[in-house]
Amino acid sequence: MISANNITLAYGKRVLFDEVNINFTKGNCYGIIGANGAGKSTFLKILSGEIEPNKGTVDITPGERMAVLNQNQFAFDDYTVLNTVMMGHQKLWKIMHERDAIYAKEDFTEADGIKAGELEEEFGHMGGYTAESDAATLLSELGVLDELHQMLMKDISANIKVRVLLAQALFGNPDILLLDEPTNNLDVETISWLENFLADYENIVLVVSHDRHFLDAVCTHVADVDKKKIKVYTGNYTFWYESSQLAARQATDKNKKMEEKKKDLLEFIARFSANASKSKQATSRKKALDKLVFEDITPSNRKYPGIIFKQEREVGNEILKVENLSKTIEGKTVFSKIKFDVQKGDKIAFLSRDPLALTTFFEVINGRMKPDDGTYEWGTTVTTAYLPNDNTEYFTGNSYNLMDWLRQFVPPNTKDVDEDFLRGFLGKMLFSGDEILKKTNVLSGGEKVRCMVSKMMLQNPNVVMLDEPTNHLDLESIISFNDGMISFPGIVLFTTHDHQFMQTVANRIIEITPKGMIDKLMTYDEYLEDARVKEMRAELYG
Question: Is residue 104 over pLDDT 90?
């Protein structure tokens, strides 16, 4: 068990945690959720000892080992990939080197022999004799090829380093596992492997993630960081979200009797308990939900932005025609001979194992980059709004307040553009009161994305293009964006790592590879399970 006792942390006048008391127990996976800036990652650092709180203690059951997903990709540059993984078990690594140092002595004494024997016994007890093969297996399962295992960390790519550091955290079956955004830069196959790994994990896991599908797959509990406190709820993220929304609706329904409210909540719990049997975490989650009582369900204090796109006019029959589009960057073929037409009603998710291919494709069809070959043509009825992966150019140069920044992007034919008009668009994205006077040069990543969405809504587009729209956003904004795209009557062209966003918005999947493309009219989950698609992917990536 690991417990936080009376944890208080403040930076100047800003109080992150005030007298937080919480226990995490074996067999459970806790999803740490909260708004951006609430202190999710900071709390993990307090538990790991990286940050010292102003007050309070962290207690761990004696003898239990903690492992943390390292965020510093350069910390192990001078070590091999395999050794980096084994260093995740610090005690094992230390014993291994202490033992080797004794054997390297020229004047090996009897005392050295006794000490070496003791170390050998402890080394064996920790699984040291299979450590190297265990580490290699873990790397392979995470998609790190065998030929990379003996390479130095500084000589491998950033996306492979992420997998090595994840393997390091998982290595040796730690009693307590702290994971901060573990799915970042992982492909869908690796994320699926990690979901299965954690679903079967019998020790304590604490995970911070903005991926709702991942949280639903692995979590038995949700730890909500809100208003300087942390409260634990039974169930996965969807259970927490839907139950808190139900409780909030009931709280505003003054005419409904308490008995009816209790009945609704108990029915909700029963329904989710039944659904838990379909989950990877079936046994532990259903066991936890069966113990839940309706008093445990409370309304959420979260605020959700209003992401509502209205098209000024419907698209015509000619929307977008792409003919044999190709692009090479620094001698590398990013995509080749991409060909498709966009049809009415299309909401297309674009996939690729190379994120650069997707960003480059969106930059090309938005006229911000020229293709090497091929053409694309937009229909005359089309009005587009684009959310690029990198929005830096929109916030450099003059430092405007948010009101003046947004005013730059008002369409020429828009009437009655006054302060209330602009406040309305900023307010939908939770910029209220004096916040609209905030300067753009002090905005966080999430605030910049929310500004960009305000700008896009202002365009009244009938085609929306999104390159990783969930980056930098908290879960509340992601949910609102997701819902907004589901209800949007126009065309959506997008790429995202958010599984649920992809599954619930897209009705067509296009995968871009250096050797060609796959185009299927189906949902994301159907695409992942389709046997013919798997064959085609193997051919194109093989």
Answer: no
